[in-house]
Amino acid sequence: MDELREVLSKASEISNRDIAVIWDKGCCRISEQGIPGLSYEEARQNSGSSWKGYIIYPFEAVGKTYYVCIRAEGCRSEAEDQLILLAIKSAVFNRCSEDERLAAALKEDFDTAVGMRLEEAYGQRLCGYVLLVSGYEDCLNEVLQIMDNTIETTLRFEYEGRILAVSPEGNIEEACESLSKNILSELLLECTVAIGGRSGGIQDLRRMLDCCLEALFIRRTYGLSDTVMNYDKLYAYRAVSCLSPGTKADILAKVFTREFKEMLNSELSITIEELFKNNLNLTDAAGKLYIHRNTLLYRLDKIFKCTGFDLKKFEDSWLFRLAWLINKEK
Fold first, then answer.
1. Is 292 helix (H, G, I), strand (E, B) or coil?
2. Rounded to whole angstroms, what are the CA distances from 120 to 48, 207, 277?
3. Architecture of the domain defined by 2-96
């Protein structure tokens, strides 16, 4: 708080105007008489306008909204106000911890100067696979402890209700699978770990975070049960989501004929899912389904008769899979 108060004192002295900063459950001003009776709620309601003789400027920092109140009376200029705001924003940013600064930078488009400061502060800790862990409810500390014992991380902090981490692990999928299993066995929680890709520094982190969020979105949209979602292995789902509504409707109509929809039940749905999970390997799929290979062939023959698509052939199976994913979007 000392730096912020010092900035306010200097700005007030140079501009010869009263200045204060108000935020939820906090306020910084030079004198107690500076802004009598101006509350956080009043500042919020009158943001961007004049109120009680003050111009109120809002700005966001580290997840909070701050209101800079500058006395409107006397000689003033817009340029002077903007310089005061810039100095106050810098002081507020410097009050925060490194993780708070990084979280704030991820939510906003930070400039080159901020990026360089963060790059200098974190260095190689930003290099590695970017992970996002969700679904831990109120067990943050317990999950962090399990992470300590399961996976190597160079950076981690809570970000918008999830754990954002960077890991230098070589076999990242295997490490994330172990993390997910350990959380389930020790806390009885089915957490999801999204892998966004490999970051080389601060400029990659935002993009990798977006990839993690998209992976979690794909999981929800298509009703996937996987607890580890690797963005780089979701090309089929990403491709489907980019198709136009018209193209989706055409593909859907080719596969989901009236006869096929009447025949489709939970048993056949599970059969189709297992066949794709096992890369169309009939022997492996039959084994996972606990059925004879001939039974699986019989089911696939029923699908062929209703749709005209032979799932034993790549040419037919890829288009069928597209239709299957499009239908799951619904």
1. coil
2. 35, 19, 44
3. 2-Layer Sandwich (3.30)
